[in-house]
Amino acid sequence: MVEPSWTVVVPVKRLDAAKSRLRGALDRVPHESLALALAQDTVAAALACPLVGEVLVVTADRTAAESLRALGARMVPEPPQGGLNPAFVVGAARAAGRWVAALTADLPALRPVELAAALRSAADDPGMRRFVADAPGTGTTLLTAPPGVPLSPRFGVGSAAAHAASGAVALPAVGPTLRRDVDTPADLVAAAALGLGGHTTALGLGGHTGTLLEPAAPVYGADMQGTVATFDPQLRSGTLLLDDGTQVEFPAAAFDASGLRLLRLGQRVRIEHDDAGGLTRITLPTFR
């Protein structure tokens, strides 16, 4: 039996805005270099997977596009509205009629054999969307759809539950490198323990040229404000660009506590937080 050939879609944010919680994680390494290396190792592993026929990278970042095209990926322009889920939808549309896999760009330890095993398992159910939860079990690193079935991505805060609620079924017995996404310095250490790809390794993680640092917990002012960078009305979560330049994610609970029905991209908001720095409520600046 001939195994299907997959199109893998990998959205990559602008490097200066990607992976904000990793900013400053590596001493003497520019943040953009780290964000790019994570994406390079992810894409390189996908391209090396024997079941993958094509990797589509959805990005608006010129540096990322040039680097990932050099690896063999094909570029797709980022949609005007931005956001992770719209990027996956645009990429999947380019692969209409084919097996499609949505893969996050932060899997620097990914091994092609583990991706192949997951895709092979997903292909056993030709009428069903399948997903892989991240290491903590709350997020998603991979979502698959067979030909003729919409991808319907629900990436974001709590995406594993959101994908399950949408009818996708979790893939069992998935290898650890496919689940080990990197959002924080601790995640990067965990990925290093599994064995990083060449691009991230070249930055000197654990070696002589780069020292892993643990940034201080975010400290937000009593009246910190920012603008809405992304918002998924189905998940009721998204990201904010604070006035100090920090990009932070907000969960559905913070939106639900606001009493608002919708957030628009670019809308000004005020955040409230707990003593640990977690976002607890989003309001409009005039609300108290």
Automatic annotation (TrEMBL):
It comes from the Bacteria. SUPFAM superfamilies: Nucleotide-diphospho-sugar transferases. Keywords: GTP-binding, Nucleotide-binding, Nucleotidyltransferase, Transferase. GO terms for biological process: F420-0 metabolic process. The keyword Nucleotide-binding applies. Its EC number is 2.7.7.105. Residues 40-137 form the MobA-like NTP transferase domain. Pathway: Cofactor biosynthesis; coenzyme F420 biosynthesis. It holds the Pfam family NTP_transf_3. Guanylyltransferase that catalyzes the activation of phosphoenolpyruvate (PEP) as enolpyruvoyl-2-diphospho-5'-guanosine, via the condensation of PEP with GTP. It is involved in the biosynthesis of coenzyme F420, a hydride carrier cofactor. NCBIfam families: F420_cofC. This is Phosphoenolpyruvate guanylyltransferase. It comes from Micromonospora polyrhachis. The gene is fbiD.
